[in-house]
């Protein structure tokens, strides 16, 4: 979770989910799951037990099993649904911005596209294009400089090298990398690629 700061509700969800799958978990593992200090693990566990969401089963002085209760399962599912709803709201917002970006590409008369950068942004754009009810835009392939993933696929689209660009009859290249946008633009210029055919998602 790089984007969100864990709230108490999210920590509760993560903890319930974890102990349901791993009743023999350790406090060290729990601290890692909730991204918290080991000193706070007992506080979180105590809260779950006081609310009837979990019971401790002492196998020995050092071994404790954490068993989720039926009420704990209900609580976990409730938190999960609410969390999913908020994520969907954020996804809709992101989708609206991607759709606006795609409409601008269409207005420029481009239809056959290559995407440069096989990361999360490319995956999101490909997902939005795939879910559209029109076929005015067609992605031919995804370019990436990592030779370990070249030849593989991203959401069904082949990942190719920069050297393969001319093998595809296309209208433009969309740069989807935030960190390496200028570097990618420079690499395209080295290939004498037309500046007018370079589209930058973040710029």
Summarize the biggest pleated sheet: 6 strands, mixed
Structure summary, number of beta strands: 8
- Rg (C-alpha, Å): 24 Å
What share of residues is helical?
Answer: 40-55%
CATH architecture of the largest domain: 3-Layer(aba) Sandwich
Supply the CATH superfamily name of the largest domain. NAD(P)-binding Rossmann-like Domain
Mean pLDDT: 92
H and E order = HHHEEHEHEEEEHE
Our measurement of the CA-to-CA distance between the termini, rounded to an integer number of angstroms, reads 25 Å
Instruction: Work out the count of structural domains.
Output: 2
The number of distinct helices, counting runs of at least 4 residues, comes to 6
Task: Give the SSE layout.
Elements: H1 8-21, H2 27-33, H3 41-50, E1 54-58, E2 64-68, H4 70-107, E3 112-116, H5 120-131, E4 138-143, E5 153-154, E6 157-160, E7 172-175, H6 181-190, E8 198-200
Parallel strand pairs: 3-4, 3-7, 4-6, 7-8
Antiparallel strand pairs: 1-2, 5-6
Protein name: C2185-like N-terminal domain-containing protein
Domain C2185-like N-terminal: 112-199
Organism: Acetivibrio saccincola
Q: Which properties best describe this structure?
A:
203 residues, alpha/beta, Arc Repressor Mutant, subunit A, Rossmann fold, six-stranded mixed sheet, two-stranded antiparallel sheet, 17% strand
Polypeptide structure, described:
With 203 residues, the chain is an alpha/beta fold. It folds into 2 domains: 8-86, Winged helix-like DNA-binding domain superfamily/Winged helix DNA-binding domain (Arc Repressor Mutant, subunit A, Orthogonal Bundle), CATH 1.10.10; 108-200, Rossmann fold, CATH 3.40.50. It has 6 helices and 8 strands. The strands form 2 sheets. It has a 6-stranded mixed β-sheet with strand order 5-6-4-3-7-8, sandwiched between helices. A two-stranded antiparallel sheet has the order 1-2. α5 links the parallel β3 (112-116) and β4. The chain is elongated, with a radius of gyration of 24 Å. The relative contact order is 0.09. The model has no long low-confidence stretch (mean pLDDT 92). This is C2185-like N-terminal domain-containing protein. InterPro entries: C2185-like_N, SAM-dependent_MTases_sf, WH-like_DNA-bd_sf, WH_DNA-bd_sf. It comes from Acetivibrio saccincola.
């Amino acid at each position: 979770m790089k984007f969100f700061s864990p709230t108490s509700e999210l920590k509760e969800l993560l903890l319930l989910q974890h102990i349901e799958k791993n009743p023999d978990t350790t406090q060290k593992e729990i601290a890692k799951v909730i991204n918290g200090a080991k000193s706070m693990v007992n506080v979180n566990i105590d809260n779950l037990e006081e609310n009837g969401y979990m019971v401790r089963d002492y196998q020995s002085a050092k071994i404790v099993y954490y068993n989720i209760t039926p009420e704990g399962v209900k609580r976990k599912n409730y938190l999960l649904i609410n969390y999913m709803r908020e994520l969907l709201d954020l996804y809709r917002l992101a989708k609206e911005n991607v759709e606006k970006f795609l409409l601008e590409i269409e207005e420029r008369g481009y239809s056959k596209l290559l995407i440069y950068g096989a990361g999360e942004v490319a995956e999101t754009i490909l997902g939005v294009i795939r879910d559209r009810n029109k076929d005015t835009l067609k992605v031919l392939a995804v370019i990436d400089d990592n030779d370990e993933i070249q030849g593989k696929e991203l959401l069904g689209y082949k990942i190719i090298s920069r050297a393969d660009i001319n093998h595809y009859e296309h209208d433009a290249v969309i740069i989807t990398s935030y960190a390496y946008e200028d570097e990618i633009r420079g690499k395209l210029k080295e290939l004498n690629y037309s500046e007018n055919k370079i589209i930058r998602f973040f710029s």
